Amino acid sequence: IAIWKIEEPESFFRQQTGLMVHKKNDRRRIEHIAGRFLLQQVLPDLPLHEIQVSDLGKPYLPGYPVFFSISHSFPYIAVAVDPQKETGIDIQVLQQKILRLQYKFLSEREQEICANDASKVTLAWTAKEAAFKQYGLGSVDFIRHMPIKSMDIEEGSARMVMSFIKADHTPEVALAGGLEEDFAWAVTV
């Protein structure tokens, strides 16, 4: 995985990648190009111009022998690469307002695990988003289909386990992550 804080102007990322993106929103445009830039830092031979995006918004490269995931929460970008299986990563800037929304994606038990702590709630959100991105097929209820079974945090590093009940079978999804000063992140492992 790699995480990058965007401090450069959009022109830096355009120059480094050769990409022109036609998004009207300035922040979305720079996040998009910066995500490809960071992916290129991890996989220098990746043909960025050939990346496609599924109907559900998941970037992929047909025929390329590596799986990847990209996430952004301005000013941060995160990428995960796995040579063998689908992967998912998510990053979110910490904000107190997530506490008002937690009931929409966390069960009562999960809310108890997070103890009304905005950083833990954000970490739980990133875990569910990362698993959702790995799954990549949409139509998931974050409360019913993705219950977090455990969340262990020690010195900013996190290990989490959740069930994924949406699939034909119910696999457990292991995730790693972290709580940084102003953001949380999680990746499927």
Describe the 3D structure.
It is a single chain. By secondary structure, the chain is of the alpha+beta class. Helices cover 29% and strands 29% of the residues. The protein contains 5 helices and 10 strands, in the order βααβββββαααββββ. The strands form 3 sheets. A 5-stranded antiparallel beta sheet has the order 6-10-9-8-7, covered by helices on one side. Strands 1-5-4 form a 3-stranded antiparallel beta sheet, covered by helices on one side. Helix 1 packs across helix 2 and helix 4 packs across helix 5.
Highlighted features:
five-stranded antiparallel β-sheet; alpha+beta; 189 residues; 5 helices
Helix proportion range: 25-40%
User: How many whole angstroms does the radius of gyration measure?
Assistant: 17 Å
Please trace the helix and strand order, writing H or E for each element: EHHEEEEEHHHEEEE
Q: Let me know the number of strands.
A: 10
**Neighbour order of strands in the largest sheet:** 6-10-9-8-7
Euclidean distance between termini CA atoms: 11 Å
Fraction of residues in β-strands: 25-35%
Question: Tally the helices: what do you get?
Answer: 5
What class would the helix/strand composition place it in?
A: alpha+beta
Average pLDDT value?
Answer: 93
Poorly predicted regions are: none
User: What is the overall shape?
Assistant: globular
